[in-house]
Amino acid sequence: MKDYLKFYRNKKVLVTGHTGFKGSWLTKWLSMVGAEVKGISLNPPSNPSHYKILNFDKKIISKKLDIKYFKGIKKEITTFKPDIIFHLAAQSLVKKSYYKTIDTFETNIMGTINILETLKSLKKCVCVIITSDKCYKNKEVKKGYKEIDELGGDDPYSASKASSEIIINSYYKTFFSNDINIKLCSVRAGNVIGGGDWADNRIVPDIVKAWNQKKVLVLRNPNATRPWQHVLEPINGYLLLGYKLTKNKKLNGETFNFGPSYSKNYTVIEIVKRFSLKFDKYKYKIKKNRGINETKLLKLNSKKSKKILNWKTILTKEETILLTLNWYKDYYTKNKIITESQIKFFMNKLK
Q1: Domain CATH for 12
Q2: What is the span of the domain harbouring residue 185?
């Protein structure tokens, strides 16, 4: 096991949004390496739920709490006294931000502020805040966006994440830049795929639902390009950063991208066709969503993470697809959960 993973043994780690897709994978991995985990979240965002089928409630401290509720958040965190915080709780869907606009801004902005404000009350803590690749002002260009590129966002979700980044920087510069005991970073990851995601309006869950329910798959934006990567890739980056942030004060206040190499970018239609080779054939049709402005091209430049953190993506394109396919096939045809075995497979690849 890598040293940065051994580091988490017996550490007190707080994860917000632990019942979500990425949060449940992160919580499982932390539990496997021996961390004492406390999760704060509302109900799992989907049914089925990856978090629920992992049967975690007896293995970690799980608190149902709205990230917008400052007094409750502060009490839970200051009582737990975490060594490390991973903040993932968010309203994470672009389409939902159009009809749940106020909730999106409140959750993503005030939720982040509540974590930052609580840090002031802790004597010592490392905090990694996960925002989104969509925080960048997307000019539909082929270059990958760097951490220093302009922030922006036309849709409410993207705007909320760009706003969060500005707020994180403000808190760091105002309150934490000279505090050697509170260390803070934000991270931006590209679109992730993997088993256990059943969220609405995401391509892999949509494919799985169409296949399992024998329905026609509806594609909103078939030519959209995204930096698809397996969910364990950015989570590995988060864990690596959390470790290095405790060791290197120069990382305090920095921002890092975690995205795949350009060769791993797919269009939506390419993902659909690759899945159809493994699943029983399913039908699909293209139906544009009027009034929903989704970007067509989005890439990240992760050279900073590779240079400073020595992070890189581990899985090949085929492994990324195969791990995702196998997870869903085992779940639906064998009633078998292979999350732990896939994390072990990934950790073996790190050696």
Answers
A1: 3.40.50.720
A2: 3-288+297-349
Question: Do 160 and 250 touch, CB atoms closer than 8 A?
Answer: no
* pLDDT tens-place string over residues 166-214: 999 999 999 999 999 999 999 999 789 999 999 887 888 888 888 888 8
Q: SS3 of 102, please?
A: helix
- Residue 218: which H helix or E strand, with range? strand 217-219
SS3 97: helix
Percent of the chain with pLDDT over 70: 95
231 to each of 39, 79, 259, 270, how far by Cα in Å? 19, 30, 11, 19
Q: Are 305 and 255 spatial neighbours (Cβ–Cβ below 8 Å)?
A: no
Task: Provide the β-strand partners of residue 64.
Answer: 41
84: left (phi over 0), alpha (psi -120 to 50) or beta: beta
CA dist 39 and 202 (Å) reads 24
- Tokens standing for 347? 């950790």
Q: Over the stretch 16-38, which tens digit does the pLDDT of each residue have? A: 999 999 999 999 999 999 999 99
The continuous run of DSSP H or E covering 239 comes out as: helix 232-247
